Amino acid sequence: MIDWSAFLVVTAASLFSAAVLVSLYSLGLRLLTTAGRIPLVEPHEFTGAITVLSPKKAAKQLKRARKAAAANPLTPAMKSLALLAGYACFVLCGIAVLYGVYLIVPALHR
């Protein structure tokens, strides 16, 4: 017999944890860009990308990102706080993923 209440609990926990992970990751990216870190990957470093930018387009994107970072109204202390918070979001994402692996693999908690 199927325990439908347990099935609903697992479904709700999965949806909630997925939403939390996506939110933390996107908040971390937002805080990094606010702090002035440019999440731009050069084509020669990541050749397995779906869309590889030509060097000319990559330079144009980098110039645009640097111009936007220069127009940032935050003080250096606020930028460093945003950078620290962004890294903290990524650390929390990693901890949540590792905890999920811990829960899934029975050999880790017996």
User: What is the residue-mean pLDDT, rounded to a whole number?
Assistant: 85
Computed CA radius of gyration, to the nearest angstrom: 20 Å
Order of SSEs: HHH
- Strand coverage percent: under 5%
Sheet with most strands: none
Cα shape: elongated
- The percent range for helix content is over 70%
Low-confidence sequence ranges: none
CA-CA gap between termini: 27 Å
The number of domains:
1
How many H/I helical runs?
Answer: 3
Class by alpha and beta content? mainly alpha
Query: What's the count of strands?
Result: 0
What brief labels describe this structure?
110 residues, mainly alpha, 3 helices, 0% strand
Structure description:
This protein has helices at residues 4-35, 55-70, 76-104. The chain is mostly helical and 110 residues long. It has one domain. The two termini are 27 Å apart. The relative contact order is 0.14.
Secondary-structure map:
Layout: H1 4-35, H2 55-70, H3 76-104
Helix pairs in contact: 1-3
What would you say about this model in short?
The chain has 110 residues and is mainly alpha-helical.
